[in-house]
Amino acid sequence: MKIDLRTIPDAEVSGIDLMDVDITLPAPEAEPQRQYYFMALLKQQLVPERAKKNGKEFLTACITTFGCQMNARDSEKLEGILETVGYHIVETEDADFVVYNTCTVRENANLRVYGRLGQLGKYKKKNPGMIISLCGCMMQEPEVVEKIRKSYKFVDVIFGTFNIFKIAELLYTHWQQAGQIIDIWDSTKDVVEELPTQRKFPFKSGVNIMYGCNNFCSYCIVPSVRGREKSREPKEIVREIERLVDDGVKEVMLLGQNVNSYGNTFEEPFSFAQLLREIEKIDGLERIRFMTPHPKDFSDDLIEVMRTSKKVCNHIHLPLQSGSSRILKLMNRKYTKEHYLELVDKIRDRLPDVSITTDIIVGFPGETEEDFEDTLDVVRKVKYDSAYTFIYSKRTGTPAAKMENQVPEDVVKHRFNRLLATINKVSHTISARYEGQSAKALVECINDHDSSLVTGRLTNNMLVHFPGDESLIGNIVDVKLTECKGFYYMGEML
């Protein structure tokens, strides 16, 4: 008997065989059942029919990801859906279906996409049946969508961040009607999960615990393109991680624009620290990471969970952005230099072995030499293990883009180089503190430069390279850290 998806509960829908779905019935209204219906239509009929029409055994798809770990996780979902309906995933962009999952944090991210589209246009002239789709943060900007609509008419399907889950339905719609499909949502109250995912690593996975952001940093466009904060229910998150563990996952990365805000929108508050305690209970899960907390609301309870946990990794990515209280106020970061340093002291006191990394922006509008020196002062005092450094990029649509006193380019570059030199000096010293010690490393891959070595990740997020082979990948092994090379170690397995 064929399955009527309208009768299948959310928790069971991912376990059905798409070939058993009755596609003669109307599409369900509820999600995720509705998307499984369109996935079944594609798998049973449209994908094999299109492959046969094109004289191919199967259709290919290529997904290119721009941006952050949230985007990378979204791309795993896109890839999982396309693979489930019958596409073969490839790395080359001359595929039958090409998807760009875009980022718009910086202006040059947009320019990269426009540049790449020119090459895709050439591919499509050779293969008129090729489908090109753009999705993600960049598509949430109306002026971008209008430009693509007018100047890149060969793009077939355009959708945003709030309806990533709809790719099967949008592909079906494209095959049913002529012309460009544009489906951009301004917001959504729903969080649709329970969809296929193709993980990059079988032994570790990102897990979205929340979406959106309510912080409104003056340089950042994320609240505009990702919307307001929405937290997933704890039981849904735990259930997802339990399934991942059953499938061989040993480490999860909990993802959110500000994980400290998790649960704030619930009728009965449920904190991020509470969520960590629940995830800690999952049998078989060995490591828990999270990205990204905000200094303004990093709680004592969270520090205590990290102190007592046997699974939460001893690494905190704590974005600074600037060491100047004056600039932090202009950035709308809601903390001061003093507050940040006090927080770091508290963390170091309770977690003496913790690794702290950060983000820093150089050249924010109005930044003086004194402001920049404050940033260098924080770097020297905190002693970061590493830092992601950025030159301020004016982002249209943000308050900072309209600020006066934009810092001259030559001044910004000079400061940026000074910052890098300071970070490198400090980080090399602090990272070397584990030299000669033993540690546990999750082996991730064969080393990119030397096939006789494998690359593993320590709980503090540093990499270690040591002799080994493919059989070690996905295992947590004991390693002696023989030599620090700055931002990574050389080692030997014990």
Helix content bin: 25-40%
Bulk shape: globular
Distance between the termini: 56 Å
Work out the strand percent.
15-25%
Could you give the order of strands across the largest sheet? 2-1-3-4-5-6
User: What is the mean pLDDT?
Assistant: 93
Radius of gyration, whole Å: 24 Å
Summarize the biggest pleated sheet.
Answer: 6 strands, parallel
- Quickly give the structural class: alpha/beta
Low-confidence stretches: none
Number of helices: 14
Number of strands: 19
Output the keywords:
494 residues, alpha/beta, six-stranded parallel beta sheet, 14 helices
Give an overview in words:
This protein is 35% helix and 20% strand. The chain is α/β, with parallel strands linked by helices and 494 residues long. The strands form five sheets. A six-stranded parallel β-sheet has the order 2-1-3-4-5-6, sandwiched between helices. The chain has a five-stranded mixed β-barrel with strand order 15-16-17-19-18. A three-stranded parallel β-sheet has the order 7-10-11, sandwiched between helices. Helix 2 packs across helix 6, helix 12 runs parallel beside helix 13 and helix 13 packs parallel to helix 14. It is globular, with a radius of gyration of 24 Å. The termini are far apart.
